[in-house]
Amino acid sequence: MRADGVGAAAPRGGGHDRVTGRQAYVADIHLPDELHAKLVTLDCARARIRSVDVGPALAVPGVRLAITAADLPQPVPRFGPQFEDRPVLAAGETKYHGEPVAAVAAETRDAAEAAARLVRVEYEELPAVFTIDGALDPAAPLVQDAALRPGDPLAGTNVLREHRVAWGDVDAAPADVVVEHVYTFPMVTQFAIEPHAFIAAPDEDGIVVWSTIQHPYWLQRVLARLLGLPLSRVRVVAPDPGGAFGGKQHAKYEPLVAFMALRAGRPVRLVLSLEETFQAVRRASARVRVRTGMHADGTFAFQDVAADYLIGAYADIADRVVSKGSYPACGPYRIPAARVVGRSILSHTPPSTAFRGFGNPQVNWAVESNIDEAARALGIDALELRLRNLARPGEAFIPFDTPADGRWEETVRAAARAIGWGDPVPPGRGRGLAIGIKSGPTTGLSYATVRLLADGSVVVHAGTSDMGQGARTIFAQIAAEELGAPLDWVTVVMGDTAVVPYDAQTSASRSSVLMGTAVLRACREIQGRLRAMAARIEGIDEASIVVERGTVRLPDRELPVLDVLRRGLGRLGGELIGNGEMRKEEEPGHPLGGSAAFWEFNCTAVEAEVDAETGDVTLVRHVTVSDVGRAINPLQVRAQDEGAAIMGLGHTLMEQYIFDDGGRIRNLGAIDYRIPTSMDLPLELHSEIVENADGPGPYGAKGMSEGALLCVAPAVAAAVRHASGAVIRDLPLSPERVWHALHSGERQP
Amino acid sequence: MNVNGMDEVNEEARGAQGAIPIRLAVNGRQRALAVLPHHTLLDVLRDDLGLTGAKECCLVGECGACTVLVDGRTVDACLVLAVEADGAEVLTVEGLAGHGRLSRLQEAFLEKGAAQCGFCIPGQLLSAQALLDANPHPTLPEVQEAMAGNLCRCAGYEQITEAILDVAAEGGR
To answer: pTM of the entire structure?
Structure first.
């Protein structure tokens, strides 16, 4: 293995700029003549807007623009990745706390902030719904205008969609034991340390937009449609985001800033505060009822899952989160009959969107916890019960989807071994173990262009966003491996629709597999050109030449690639260009529109201690084992795995939005909304990977950036129960909640 | 413009109503500025001096993304008014590398893969630097406590801690 090729812990692409402060994130970019924008919001969730007077704002020195819905094309343009329901500015009514009704732009940030406070909005607060029960009440006000849902039988309700997945006959399946419980998952937020930021600048041909976006090409499409411009005149520049976690997948305020820039005829920038980011993106909370039927021998009779997700006022990608997240709810087990009903329920709360795990952690928490209940009821060890039912390689555990694509038992046994499952538990401690599974991308399209330059160095053009997962490094390693260039001779260009070819999305842990394959194919095309070149200059048959890893093998000798390249390019120099394409086509009739490109599979096991006086949970040891197929970069794999595990501890132990009666987030911002710090880590965090090179990506890789987050909560809750007897079915397992469970709640072994 | 050996910046602000002249030594370079009384050190570093390494996130002193050293001590630059820093020596991430060479701490962050998205890393580096300056051989709990004010949502805490302990094992710098 080469020190910087595939399988090596190669240093991070872009690392130097990240440790020197040179990395330019969107908010670090300034354009000449730019204006600073500020949003105008109301102090309530749902309100009828009677009038907006921007006069006093415009009187502030330095203010150049104040824009309301009335200044936009009419009807107010709407957008959204699934439903075009979100207006560029609130149209007649705000639907959640933090929804902008107007925006101002000024020469300085101070002036913009002062002016935003002076915009006078007359409004009438309206009844609103903030909870699942509130939204489902037949008398509840409708969040979405029924007129926007023509022909939709659910249009008269707050249920946006209902998604059903079923096989076998749950109602007719006999079971020896049935356990049924309801579990809740809190509303949490992505909390990327980089708040969202947007800049739009008109140019003579159209518009250029800088954004912290994960999907620049998707944004380009949205902007082109809203602005009536051809794609070629909408340029989206997407510098590496400072963390995204799904929250930056889709357009938020880019359309507004674009309209403002076009109106002002000058660049306009909008950098959200952290509080505004909290109001812009979050994970859907959920209430999940699970009915698990078991045979006495510890095999499944059925799983019956009803998952209600509370999405926000606009759909964003949340309904897809619900369908794709609830879909594999029954887990990687052999289950003869299954029924999963996932509902996306609208509410007057900030729009929920993609968040690492994409709807899976909610159902996983419930189903894996219920499996523990079933194991208890049967008197079978929780690990043993899982192993007894775990899908074997090639087994179609969801009858109409990709069969098990890994030796999953290896992963589960590795986690059990690492936590010491079955060994005596020290007094006061408990252990828990859970399995997480998630469908990888179901469709996708990635193009890559690779250029082998005259001196043997390489430029890779790929439209993926490197938001910390390290895609830049992975693509460089693939190119280095295939073309024989040292890693520091490979440059990866990303994040600019005017420069890199199309990529559908950076999501679902897809990039190593899909874009990675496109990069690999582009490199292989260059290898083909090198072969043709060598055949020409050597006067031999092309079929007798092999190119691999920087070497051109002729029948009688080997030549370095550079040798062939120099002679082949000749005096004019130039370069060899390769294009690669990777498609994952839609599958009509499939419930998700396509089968899983791969399964992300993880087993998490923890040992915990509970302080009965304070309810505080200490994780003594946290083990995460992921089946990654092949680690192209083990250093990055470990960082992604551990990062996902710790992020999972957030919603498990401490994170949640708390609303007041008016639908305002009470713990808005970093003081009152806590995420894990260096003081909240497990005393010992152990990350392992299983590599059998059985993934569909380059060299057998699978996606792996979400797995370790999926099943943290049920593993921890099981350990807490084992340690203390506290039975808790609502997250987070905050000290307060644990204390109450120990002192007044249900307490069982 | 160069006045009395100082680089003068933001001349425009000097004319602004209420602007107050201050002097800062930023990364070893003397700077004379005029700042508005409500502007923070972070505003001045990012907007007036173009030193964007210190990041803006929570603006309430909780996330640590804007951590810089003022006279050798870590501060959240979002909580320090620029006028309060008058006369101070300020070290930002841009000043960690000397003559184009990364500091040992910066190198260790790269080696351990501690920088992922990278947004919190400038603040992490300065907190770590201050820790090692004060305590060249910290224990693991001491590192975790010293770094508790710097949030990392990529949660590269293990890698950051390993990098700091590595440098400490080599002698503190």
So the answer is: 0.97
